[in-house]
Each structure stands twice: as C-alpha cells, then as structure tokens.
Amino acid sequence: MHVLLTAGPTYEPIDPVRFIGNHSTGKMGYALAAEFAQQGWQVTLVSGPTAQTITHPLVTVVPVQTAQQMYEAAAAVAPAADVWVFAAAVADYRPRTVAAEKIKKRDDGTDETLTIELVKNVDIAATLGQTKRAEQFSVGFALETQDELPNAQRKLQRKGFDLVVLNSLRDAGAGFRHDTNKITLVEASGVTTFELKPKADVARDIVSAILARLQPHVA
Ligand code: CTP
Ligand code: CA
Question: Which residue intervals define the domain DNA/pantothenate metabolism flavoprotein C-terminal in the entry (predicted)?
Fold first, then answer.
C-alpha cells in the first residue's frame, strides 16, 4: 500500500530574498509519514520547507517550495497512491510577479506603503480530488478559528475528502508550534472527538482511523 502525504508550509517568493509563508512546522505530516512507514506502507512525502527530517527505507521525501511545485509533485504520485493525506499548510495566494531584484525602499517620502498583488494558488487537494478513483481514499486537514464544524463539512464536500482532520485554534495546545494536538475527525457519517495528545499519538489515531475505514473501501 502506498500513501501520498503533503506536509509543511509552502513559500511563495516575493523577490530573491523574501517570501510569503506560514507557521506550519510540518510536525504533524512527518509524524504521519513515520506512522504509515511503521505500518509497512510505502510513503511519498511531498514536503514544503521545514526543519523536520525523516529517514526510513519506505519513505521518499520530495522537497518543494511553492504550492505549484507541491501540486506538480503530488499529481505525479497521486494516481499510484491508495491513500492521499493533505497535511500541508498551502499558501492560498502568491505574489502575481516575483521581483528579479531585491525590492528596495526609495526613502523619497512615497514609500510609506507597499502593495503586493496576490493571485490564487492551485488547490492541490480539490484538483486531485476530481481525479480520485472509487477505491482511493482522501484525507484533508482543516485549521479553523471559528464555525469549525460547518467549515470542515464544507471542505469535506468541496474537495472530495473521505475524512477531514479538524484542528481548532481555540483548543489550547492544538495547532502550530505545539508538540501536542487536539483533533476532531469529520466525515459524512458523523464526528469523532479526541483528547489533547502528543502529535505522535495523534498520528497513530489518524492512521488507525484511516485503516479502519479502508477495509470496507477496498473490499
Ligand atoms: N489545500 C490544498 N491546496 C491548497 C489549499 C489547501 O491542498 N491550495 C488542502 C490543505 O492541505 C488541507 C485542506 O486543503 O488538507 C484544507 O486547507 P484549508 O487551508 O483549511 O482550506 P482552504 O480551502 O484553503 O480554505 P480557507 O483557508 O479559506 O479556510
Ligand atoms: Ca487555506
């Protein structure tokens, strides 16, 4: 069995020295990769820039920077993967143009504000979702700060996910920059809530939930 995982942030360049990014550490995605490998799965981990490392004979890491690169790397693997897990915090927008040279202040009184026009990035999960075969299983993440459940349910439908892992930033110890996480699994048939746990234990919960749902799926 083969799982495609996306993890980490994406970096969208502004000029040669600056980018738009986010606080994703990649910890959750790498913990999932380790857990799948532990279970004997072949893992392709398409990873944005992170400090995480993983060395395992079953894990292939494909390092990328931008959302477009992450999409291309994921699309190359998706048809052959049994399960897709989109744990990356993909930048929704990128600068329309990337300046060839470092953007300089002018110091002439007209540089008090700077506007960078952004254009929408490809939605990796939603785009691949349109190619998903009946026997494939797709898992998304949703990080919300309000209207958590309705937002997660919308994402479930819109992106063709079979399961959404919901993180609320209102839960203490959950989300970015923590070694713990508190998740709710959202699927068409209902909602399952878990306690606050170390991310490795959360990864185990997520992988066993996926495996449990795969049995009827592949049968
Ligand atoms: N995702 C993706 N490609 C994008 C944006 C998001 O693959 N360009 C995936 C994420 O990896 C995650 C899921 O879609 O599994 C939901 O991401 P999220 O940012 O919560 O949803 P968005 O659809 O971008 O909505 P918003 O940020 O407006 O809440
Ligand atoms: Ca988003």
Answer: 2-211
- Token pair recorded at residue 4: 């495609």
Give me the domains of the chain, ranges plus CATH numbers: 2-95+116-218 (3.40.50.10300)
- For residue 129, the CA-to-ligand 1 centroid distance in Å is 12
Best of 120, 122, 124, 147 for a ligand 1 pocket test (most atoms within 8 Å of beta carbon): 124
Reading the chain (219 residues) residue by residue, the pLDDT tens digits are 999 999 999 999 999 999 999 999 999 999 999 999 999 999 999 999 999 999 999 999 999 999 999 999 999 999 999 999 999 999 999 999 999 999 999 888 888 999 999 999 999 999 999 999 999 999 999 989 899 999 999 999 999 999 999 987 777 777 667 788 899 999 999 999 999 999 899 999 999 999 999 965 544
- In angstroms, the Cα distances linking 2 to 30, 42, 45, 120, 127 are 15, 5, 11, 30, 20
Instruction: Give distance in angstroms: CA of 150 to centre of ligand 1.
Output: 15
